[in-house]
Design goal:
By secondary structure, the protein is of the alpha/beta class. It contains eleven helices and twelve strands. An eight-stranded parallel β-barrel has the order 1-4-5-6-7-10-11-12, surrounded by seven helices. Helix 1 runs parallel beside helix 3 and helix 9 runs parallel beside helix 11. The radius of gyration is 16 Å and the shape is globular. 48% of the residues are buried.
Length: 244
C-alpha cells in the first residue's frame, strides 16, 4: 500500500479554516461550505479525508456535527475524524454514521483504558493523536502541555490494536515551515504502530521526503494550508505518494 495523503478539513463555526500553531484566535477562513470542499478534494483524486471539529476539541464534545455528517455522506472515500471524541457513545455514533476512523487525542493521555476498549471494539478504526510541543504531549486542542513525552505515550498503545498514530508538531502546524520529518521517522521507527505525519507541510518536497520513509512505518501525511494556499497540488501529491 502506498503513502496515504489526507487532505484536511478543519471546522470552526461551520466554516473551513486553518489555524496557526493550533491557536483558535489565529484562524484563516477558506470557505463556508465544507461539503463542497470535500468534493473538490475527491475530484482531485483523494480517497481519504481528515476532518477535525476544532470547536469540539475544546468543548470535549461534537460541535460541528451537522457539517461532519454532510461531509461523510457526500465524500466517496474514507473519512478520518477527530475533535472532542472522548466517550464510547461518541465513537459508536460516528462509526454508525459512516466515519472510517476516529482520532482520539486528549482522552488517550487522560483515559488510556478508553482507547484500549475502543480499539478492541472497533478493530482498525482507532487512531491515537500524539500532538507534540517541544517533544511533550499537548492536549485539549493543544491548549495544555503535559509532562509525558511523545514516545512514552505512543508506547502505551503498542499492544492495544490501534490503527495508527497521528503525530503533529504543533509548532509547525499551519505555519508552512515544512513537516518535521526527522521526528516523524524517529517515532515510526521507535514503535510498531504506523505513523501519520501532520503539521507544517509546505509543498511537494515534504511528500517526497515522507514517501521515502514509507517502509519505516510512515503510513501517511495530512496537509491543509499548503493545499488551500496553492503551494501544493493535490493531484501531484497523490502521484508522488502512490509511487512510494
Amino acid at each position: 500500500m502506498s503513502l496515504i495523503v489526507f487532505p484536511a478539513i478543519d471546522l470552526k463555526g461551520g466554516q473551513v479554516v486553518r489555524l496557526a500553531e493550533g491557536d483558535m484566535d489565529r484562524a484563516t477562513v477558506y470557505g463556508d461550505d465544507p461539503t463542497h470542499q470535500a468534493m473538490l478534494f475527491a475530484e482531485a483524486g483523494a480517497q481519504h479525508l481528515h476532518v477535525v471539529d476544532l470547536d469540539g476539541a475544546f468543548a470535549g464534545e461534537s460541535v460541528n456535527g451537522e457539517a461532519v455528517q454532510a461531509i461523510v455522506k457526500a465524500f466517496p472515500g474514507h473519512v478520518q475524524l477527530g475533535g472532542g471524541i472522548r466517550k464510547p457513545e461518541n465513537v459508536e455514533r460516528w462509526f454508525d454514521l459512516g466515519v472510517s476512523r476516529v482520532v482520539i487525542g486528549t482522552a488517550a493521555l487522560e483515559k488510556p483504558d478508553f482507547v484500549r476498549d475502543m480499539a478492541k471494539a472497533y478493530p482498525g478504526g482507532i487512531v491515537v493523536a500524539v500532538d507534540a510541543k517541544d517533544g511533550m504531549v499537548a492536549t485539549r486542542g493543544w491548549a495544555d502541555v503535559s509532562d509525558v513525552s511523545v514516545e512514552d505515550l505512543a508506547r502505551r498503545f503498542e499492544d492495544a490494536g490501534v490503527a495508527a498514530l497521528l503525530f503533529t508538531d504543533v509548532g509547525r502546524d499551519g505555519m508552512l515551515k515544512g513537516c518535521n520529518v526527522p521526528a516523524t521517522v524517529d517515532l515510526a521507527r521507535a514503535v510498531r504502530i504506523p505513523v501519520i505525519a501532520s503539521g507544517g507541510v509546505a509543498g511537494i518536497g515534504d511528500i517526497h521526503m515522507l514517501a521515502l520513509h514509507h517502509q519505516d512505518g510512515v503510513e501517511g501525511v495530512i496537509t491543509g494550508r499548503a493545499l488551500y494556499d496553492g503551494r501544493l497540488d493535490l493531484a501531484a501529491a497523490l502521484s508522488v505518494a502512490a509511487a512510494a
